[in-house]
Amino acid sequence: MKQKNKNVEQYEVKQPVQLLPFLIEKMSNRSRNTVKSILARGQVNVNDREITQHNFQLQPNDTVSILKNKVAKAASFDGMKLLYEDDAVIVVEKDAGLLSMASPKERSRTAYKQLMAYVRKVNPNNRIFIVHRLDRDTSGVMMFAKNEKVKQKLQQAWKDMVAERTYVALVEGVVKKSEGTITSWLKESKTFKMYSSPKPNDGQRAVTHYNVMQSNNQFSLLQVHLETGRKKQIRVHMTDIGHPIVGDKKYGSKVNTIRRLGLHASVLAFYHPITGKLLRFESDIPPLFKKKSK
Description:
Layout: E1 2-4, E2 8-12, E3 17-18, H1 19-26, H2 32-40, E4 44-46, E5 49-50, E6 57-58, E7 63-67, E8 80-85, E9 89-94, H3 111-120, E10 129-130, E11 139-145, H4 148-156, H5 158-161, E12 162-172, E13 179-188, E14 194-197, E15 204-215, E16 219-226, H6 233-240, E17 263-271, E18 278-282, H7 287-292
Parallel strand pairs: 11-17
Antiparallel strand pairs: 1-2, 2-7, 3-6, 4-5, 4-7, 8-9, 9-11, 10-11, 12-16, 12-17, 13-14, 13-15, 15-16, 17-18
């Protein structure tokens, strides 16, 4: 008999059986890989004891409990937190200082490598795929695909499938206009620095909308909505209006009182590439951003 409450599914065992086949039968609407992931993450209890072994022997009258929250018992990561996972995508909250993927100087401690190791604990053939990136020193929400088909679908229809990308930016100075839109044509220099071209149609069109959340005589905290998602777009556009992001020395910042880049990806909302359902993930504004701009 199956019992339901808000957070747990419970089943009573009727006859001797191993745990994995029992779960596959009870969760027939989920793939074998998903069921194995649920086990690996420690979301299954037998008689109130956490069990992860596939071949654990169940006996009549045992009670099997499954935590519904997909990331309730997720593995621990270095510099990030798992927000959501299913057969198609993984959504994480990344700390400032963690690379999205490998660089010539850093190959091991990246979001990509940690997640690859994580999914391969369930099946050595599992992989993840980069869909979009956050700069090393930008924190917040980002998404990865779990197969190439999903990756291609998301990247090819990114503008249509992403309903909202919102950042918060701590910038230098007092932004006098309470809201505004910045539009330019972005190009990359020979030294790999992005800039706004003075010529119309010369580069990739980039559009950034912002509104001031709070400010003092030194710093302003902005909510930033991306209409386009170009490389370094927010960093360049903040410099264009004379208010570089705090800690962004490469793009004109003179101070770094927070010892990191003052940029945080606070909201990512997208239509699921398989189900079409709208999913929305939000990450809290770093407290230091609020404190510095109060």
